[in-house]
Amino acid sequence: MSSGLGPPTAAVRPREDRATADRVALSAATARGARSRTEEVRAWLAERRRAHVFEVTRIPFAELRQWRFEEGTGNLVHRSGRFFTVEGMHVVESDGPYGDGPYQEWQQPVVRQPEVGILGILAKEFDGVLHFLMQAKMEPGNPNLLQLSPTVQATRSNYTRAHRGTDVKLIDHFFRPDPDRVLVDVLQSEQGSWFYRKSNRNMIVETVDDVPELDDFRWLTLGQIAELLHEDDLVNMNARTVLSCVQYPDTSPGALLSDAQLLSWFTGERSRHDIRVERVPLASVRGWKQGVEAIEHEDGRYFKVVAVSVRAGNREVVDWDQPLLEPVGLGVSAFLVREIEGVPHVLVHARAEGGFLDTVELAPTVQCTPGNHAHLTPEHRPPFLDTVLDARPERIRYEAVHSEEGGRFLNARSRYLLVDADDVPLAPPPGYTWATPGQLRALTRHGHYLNVEARTLLACMNATAARPRGGQ
Amino acid sequence: MSSGLGPPTAAVRPREDRATADRVALSAATARGARSRTEEVRAWLAERRRAHVFEVTRIPFAELRQWRFEEGTGNLVHRSGRFFTVEGMHVVESDGPYGDGPYQEWQQPVVRQPEVGILGILAKEFDGVLHFLMQAKMEPGNPNLLQLSPTVQATRSNYTRAHRGTDVKLIDHFFRPDPDRVLVDVLQSEQGSWFYRKSNRNMIVETVDDVPELDDFRWLTLGQIAELLHEDDLVNMNARTVLSCVQYPDTSPGALLSDAQLLSWFTGERSRHDIRVERVPLASVRGWKQGVEAIEHEDGRYFKVVAVSVRAGNREVVDWDQPLLEPVGLGVSAFLVREIEGVPHVLVHARAEGGFLDTVELAPTVQCTPGNHAHLTPEHRPPFLDTVLDARPERIRYEAVHSEEGGRFLNARSRYLLVDADDVPLAPPPGYTWATPGQLRALTRHGHYLNVEARTLLACMNATAARPRGGQ
């Protein structure tokens, strides 16, 4: 068919690749995978949990062998200088010029890890349908230790080390991927309340190579993963954020705001927040106290910094110790959902977090740990929190408890909800606006628009669309 | 026609607004404005230059009355604590893991102004064609003092002050704009080699109100502004960056890389650069020396920090003094241009600058001050610099000298060029890739993709498309 005249190395192609969106939709619609049955995933995870030694023990800071409080600053650092540090952060927020954001100032401990890691999922077609290689991975902070993870999770230190672990073959797929095989590739932020300006490279790369079938890995369709996203503590945070960046086709006829209007609203939110953040020594952080086993807030709110000792492996067992951040209670992250002329919209919040690279990112309507606000009168509690907590069961479109990153956070769990709220006004309060899931998906092509909690909810929305509630 | 059943406050609209792109194209194609003739703009600018008192005098630092070197740090600060500061910056760049970026470490003075200003152009239809309200504005650092500027240039301090100047009415258009009237609204970076993480809100807002015709303002079409962009030192940097964000329709059939591939390449470039930047006291900056009238590099390279005294006004004359950064030579910013299957592409460079918010932004193929590299052997000079400097006249698609921001920089001028280079390979060296002007325009809907020099060239490309060379 080809005339053979065009140079083989140069070809102008359409700027948008429609075929990939169709392949994504097909995988999402495929509930029976070619390689594994969904019902067997739980049993496989339990089996892998038994196959590994994995013991996590809380220890006092004094028993940390590989970590120490740095002289002078009191920062918690690894003896090698690698991995991450626990430092202090001083945040001053004075929101103007509209005057609707109060002045706030606080200090807190924060995890600093100024290197970009890779969260990569390998994809491959079986029977003409895209499958994704998910790993059964242990992490010390997970309440159930082992969860479904991306194919690889690698810090820069990991993947540049001469001595490489079991990821050696799989990480190579993400190192210099063939541009024609990249489905997702974007830097996304992590928790801005716990991390100082952390971002990771979220990737999905397709392969046509044979991939060895290892015990800790399973190929699953997006439809299968959607089912699993309805279970508690099963799909880990790193998998959820990568999945949130998948470009499902947008079938809705439009949105309340055009894309240009949504971006303009966001620009206004970024501009009206004035947030100055300084790193400070951990030892000097005001409002927090250091004990034998924990650094905690004076009123017992937010989180603690604790230490654990870990013993892990299957054939070869390794020991290490490390600090973890342990939130004080179960969090709530929820989008209110409203159909506008038949098109579902969610109420997004332009939320400031001290650790964000740039002022605000789009967050769930409600994102908090209710216990931190229990002492406040209703009018001082976070907007819409009571709407979410008091929602009748028939208004709850989606609900599951998910864990945050188990390599840095201990028992950090949140209820993720999608709650019908057709009675919430079309003109929401300042700092909130309505956007469609399709608009949010388009924003995940770029970094620093959606925060990690909003991305988890977006992954859940994709899953809810793929498998409507009660439709198992 | 309407059934009258829909709620009047809610309407789902298409996510993309095609009508605006058509109106932009019409304005670009309109060489004769409804309000002013293009040929008269130069005379009007000269007349405004005469109408104002504007005297700029270099002074030694000791004669600064409103600024002082802060005790302890030596930072240059305003006595009120407002406006901006001149501080130090320590940059460490260690690019891996691909190993093609060398380790670099340096210190330098830098301007810090951690507030978001507004650069706003007001738009209005006359005879069915969009016109843009441009101001004849004096700035102390401009070589010719007065240039064509946005309708308003306001720092946050300016527009939140109780006491407001002549901009009072015009700035209100940009304060809480009607979402249906916003044509451009995005936060964009400024010079990362001279500013520490500076960004401004670039806006174009349409009005249907009557706007008083003031002596310092003229309504011009995009076609008229395109002609003026071919003149030296006429359209100021702030006008150029706002104009670069105008969403002209993309008429080309595609690109060498799809948008997803271009974004993936960019993510890879951001990931492979590891840049740590610390603010340091100006007094401690290594490699720079402080004299009576200038802080300068020990080898006389890059720029100087100097001080000026300004006397300005027309009816009411005000005096002030301030520091300015003065580059040591004429800069060069150039895109190499190559047609691929008939579609023009430019060679963009993922360039690290110490003052960027996030590692790299897309920059011109060549962006440097040649004098800073004159002492180096050819193989150590910036890639493609000689291609640009040696280009025969017939290969030069566009050339003009433009000034950088005259409120902070003194005589900061660069030759901006578009140079035909059909012999440059389709597979360029690491850190470079081919992209179409349409792709770059789409990226200016978001911040921190294109640096300010690339945005000036994008505005020039839009102008070249609107008025082909020699077509006056």
Automatic annotation (TrEMBL), chains A, B:
Q: Where is the dTDP-4-dehydro-6-deoxy-alpha-D-glucopyranose 2,3-dehydratase domain?
A: 38-246, 260-461
* Annotated InterPro entries: EvaA-like, EvaA-like_sf
GO terms for molecular function, please?
lyase activity
Chain positions covered by the region annotation Disordered: 1-22
Name this protein carries in UniProt = 2,3-dehydratase
Q: Which organism is it from?
A: Streptomyces sp. TP-A0274
